[in-house]
Prior knowledge:
The structure is a single chain. By secondary structure, this protein is of the alpha+beta class. It is built from 2 helices and 7 strands; from the N terminus they run βββββαβαβ. Strands 1-2-3-4-5-6-7 form a 7-stranded mixed β-sheet, with helices on one face. It is globular. The C terminus is likely disordered.
Amino acid sequence: MEDFELVKQHTISNGEVITIAIDEDECSILVFNEKNEKIGNIDLKEVDDGFYITWMYLDQINPRYTHKGIGREALKFFKEVYRTGLYVSMAIYFDPPLANKIDPPFIV
Length: 108
């Protein structure tokens, strides 16, 4: 984790300690397990008054990491560091054809 300056440890519900790192160059939040394997990442795009979540996938190595509050903790850490709004689109929950029709942003 020496590649990142902004790093936080977090214990998930099964007792495992994960590492949340903010990659300032790529505008991304990366999450690693205790073996330094990448669990997943959240990509963001900077907008005028905050950041817009463009991609979020946190079960790249194993679905056992889902529903553990990892995404929530990663976004909380990002907000603590940058002290700004995080925006997400409802479209991320739909298939791509529908995503172009439904895109009301809301604040995290």
